[in-house]
Design brief:
This protein is an alpha/beta fold and 346 residues long. Helices cover 28% and strands 23% of the residues. The chain has two domains: 7-86, Peptidase S8 propeptide/proteinase inhibitor I9 (Alpha-Beta Plaits), CATH 3.30.70; 94-345, Rossmann fold. Strand 11 (211-213), helix 6 and strand 12 form a beta-alpha-beta unit. Helix 4 (154-163) packs parallel to helix 7 (295-312). The chain is globular. The protein starts with 6 loop residues before the first strand and ends with a helix.
Amino acid sequence: MGISRRVVTAIDGHTRYLAREILVGFGLGTSMEDLQAFLARTGGTVMEASETLGVYRILLPENINVPELAEQLANDPAISLAEPNYVYDLPELLPGGTSTGEKPQWIPPSGNGEMAVAVLDSGLIADEALSSAVLSAYDATNPNAPLTADAVGHGTLMAKLAAGLVDPYRTPVGEGVPVVIVKAFADDGSADSYTLMNAMTHAVENSSGPVSLSWGTETPSKFIETAVRYAINSGSPVFAAVGNENTGRSIYPAAYPGVIGVAAGTADGQYTEYSNRGNFVDIIAPGSAGGSQGTSVATAYVSHVAGLYMQHNPNASASDTVAALIEAAGDDRYLSEDEVRHLLAK
């Protein structure tokens, strides 16, 4: 619509959202008349709509207090959910880790079938090896343009980890894993709820494998939770980073029900100093690879292992895959090299 994006910081000092934008979901039994009545009452205009999730992205007039309006709409019987269009940032990769060399004996995936690891991140700069693993690439920040760049660099490393070109153990595993790349974060490293929701629905529609989310926020969103639930209900296990600050505070989407929260661990199976921790951590994995470290790395690696498991066990469901990984990790929740070998040998 040609509207410039302006980010507003809420009174709490850390929650951010796009000015003048509100996301609205209407309840069962509502009609277009209800939508039109809402637009007339608020002076809003529909910018976009997700038919899959039943969500409208609405532009409001200037000087509307969006959080206040969202609270008021909680009492509207025609509306099931309303929130500001929250803004999130990709985590910075921490320096360190092994070199970026490719894994020995890596073989490009055959690409047979629809199983692939969906990586929702900052985009892709693909070399010849990585290109051979990419099943499809989509720019959710600009759907009409081809995905040819990664201004941040975060997404390219996560794609290599998910495909198996880079991993913390440099363990040769033979055939790599196909990946579906979805750019959900803009060139400045930020994303909004609506774009992330569209990225999620695209990932699910184009892959039946794991979804890798190497990012997180302390700001919960019912709309993002709805998108994650859609992926899980569609048969895709979802893995998410728990954060690179040891605060003990919940990080989303890792803390949403059904999502597998991944923390970063040291070679001896302990949490790294920087890794977050809490009851939302399900698996701990090495977080150092490709010249960088962080729970982002650990998450993409665990997603790769999940993809390999589903490749080796084509009848395994999402719940089967998650159960197998958690059982392999054991009581300490750390997924060691030997445990990965044993898991994939089954």
